[in-house]
Every structure is written in C-alpha cells, then in structure tokens.
Amino acid sequence: MPMMFGFGAQRRQMLDAELQRLIDEMPQLGMNSMFLIGPFARGDVGPGTVLDLVVVQETEEPVHRRADFWTTHLRPRIGINFYVYTPEEFENPHGSDPVLHDAANIGERIYG
Predict the structure, then answer these.
(1) pLDDT-derived band of residue 1, with 50, 70 and 90 as boundaries?
(2) Domain-by-domain residue ranges, the chain?
(3) Which of 29, 67, 84, 100 sits CB 3.0–4.6 Å from 93 for a disulfide?
C-alpha cells in the first residue's frame, strides 16, 4: 500500500479550520467557554484524529442530550466530540471526571 506523505499536515489544517469556524459561531449559540482536549490538543494528528471539545454553557438539557444541540446547529464538517457541562458542573466537578480533569489540567482554553 502506498504511503501518503503530508496527510498529517492536511488533517491538521482541516482540524484548525473547523476549530476556527466553531470559535466564530458557538458564542452566538450560548457557549460560555471552550477547552480543547485529547490528541489534537497534544499535537498528535493522524488519519482518525477528531476535535475533542469541552463546552461550558447554561443548559437545562440532560447530560446525554447536550452534545446533540451543538451537532444539530453546527453540522460539523469533521469528527468532533462535544462534552458539555454547565458552569456549576465545570467549577464544582463531582467525583473524578476524566474529561473535566483533562480540561482543567492539560486542556487548552480556546474561548472564554
């Protein structure tokens, strides 16, 4: 199988472009802040790399439905995992939530 050179750079550009689009559009939809976590935040880009985003927003939606709002309104052009927390949940985490741990300790605040 032939090897594709430059794919990592191309994938990085695609992820960067999508991230910038989200930063531009999400505040209008009620986002308070956003953190980039996961492989892309660490600089690891491969064929399956997606954006892992911790979104802080006021919401009454149950936890299992919160990401649906962002997926429906933004129609991602590339793989994205939205992890949505209320400001209260973000500031006062219950137990040892690994997503919140990553956001607080190694995540990159990209908005808010």
Answers:
(1) very low
(2) 7-111
(3) 100
Which pair of structure tokens corresponds to residue 20? 């910038």
So what's the pLDDT on residue 8?
78
d(CA 31, CA 9): 29
Q: Please give the structure tokens belonging to residue 111.
A: 């908005």
CB of 31 closer than 8 Å to CB of 55 = yes
**Number of C-beta neighbours around residue 12 at 10 A:** 14
Amino acid symbol at 19? L
Domain 7-111 has CATH 3.30.460: yes
Q: What is the pLDDT of residues 24-76, one digit of tens each?
A: 999 999 999 999 999 999 999 988 899 999 999 999 999 999 999 999 999 99
The Cα angle at residue 83 between residues 72 and 42, in degrees rounded to 5: 115
| Rg for the chain, CA atoms, rounded | 15
